[in-house]
Design a protein that fits this description.
Mean pLDDT: 81
Low-confidence stretches: 16-22, 193-199
Oligomer: single chain
Strand order of the largest sheet: 7-6-5-4-10-11-12
Length: about 210
C-alpha cells in the first residue's frame, strides 16, 4: 500500500503538470503593441493581436492570443478593409495542431492559397504555438516588403488597414465574426476603422 507522502508527491507532480499544460505563458509574444480584435461581447473568442517591428532585418513579428474555445481559424488581411485583392494569413486548428498559411483573396468566399497561384508563394512563417484547453497562442513573422505579386507591402511610419475574421469551426464563412482596424507596424495602433454594423469585431487597444 503506497505511503501518504508518496501519494502527496504524486498529486503535487500532477498539479504541476496540469499547470504547465494550461499555462498561456509558454510562447513569447511580441511586446511593442497590441490590439483587442474581439472582446467576447457576442459570446465568441477573446482575440488579441500583438506585434513588433524589427528595423534590422525589416520584418514584423506578430502574435495572436485567443481564449474561450473551441478554436477553428483566425484570419488576418493586410492592406485593405475587404476581401478584394487582399493578402491574408490564416491560422487553422486541426487535430490539436496549429498551422498557418498565406492566402490571396479576390472575392467574398474562400481565398486561394498563394502556393497554388503562379508566381506566388507563402511569405509567412510560424515561429511558435501553444494550444490547450483554454488558450490558442501562436507567433509568426514576415518581411515588411512584398515578396511576390500576392503580397501586400507593410507600410512604415503610416497606418494601413488590417481586416480580420474568425470562426470556431474549419475554414468556412465567418458570418458576423469579422472587423477592421488601422495599424502602424513601426509606431503602433492608430484606431478602429469603423467595423461594419452587425460585425463582432472590436478593433481597439487592449
Amino acid at each position: 500500500m503506497p505511503c501518504f507522502c508518496c501519494i502527496q508527491l504524486l498529486v503535487t507532480l500532477l498539479q504541476l503538470l496540469l499547470n504547465f499544460i494550461h499555462s498561456p505563458q509558454a510562447v513569447t509574444l511580441p511586446s511593442s503593441y497590441s490590439i483587442l480584435l474581439s472582446d467576447q461581447s457576442a459570446g465568441g473568442n477573446l482575440i488579441t493581436l500583438y506585434y513588433d517591428f524589427n528595423d534590422t532585418n525589416q520584418s514584423v513579428t506578430l502574435g495572436v492570443v485567443a481564449t474561450n474555445p473551441p478554436f477553428g481559424y483566425i484570419g488576418l488581411g493586410f492592406g485593405r478593409d475587404d476581401m478584394f485583392g487582399t493578402d491574408m494569413v490564416i491560422a487553422i486548428v486541426n487535430n490539436s495542431q496549429v498551422t498557418i498559411d498565406d492566402y490571396w483573396s479576390t472575392r467574398h468566399g474562400r481565398p486561394a492559397l498563394d502556393s497554388t497561384i503562379e508566381g506566388c508563394k507563402s511569405s509567412y512563417y510560424l515561429l511558435d504555438s501553444l494550444l490547450n484547453a483554454t488558450h490558442l497562442i501562436y507567433t509568426f513573422g514576415r518581411s515588411m516588403a512584398a515578396e511576390d505579386a500576392c503580397d501586400f507591402p507593410l507600410t512604415q511610419n503610416s497606418s494601413m488597414y488590417l481586416a480580420y475574421a474568425w470562426k470556431n469551426t474549419s475554414l468556412s464563412n465567418h458570418g458576423k465574426n469579422y472587423g477592421q482596424a488601422r495599424i502602424n507596424f513601426t509606431q503602433g495602433y492608430t484606431g478602429p476603422a469603423l467595423p461594419p454594423n452587425g460585425s463582432n469585431g472590436t478593433g481597439k487597444t487592449n
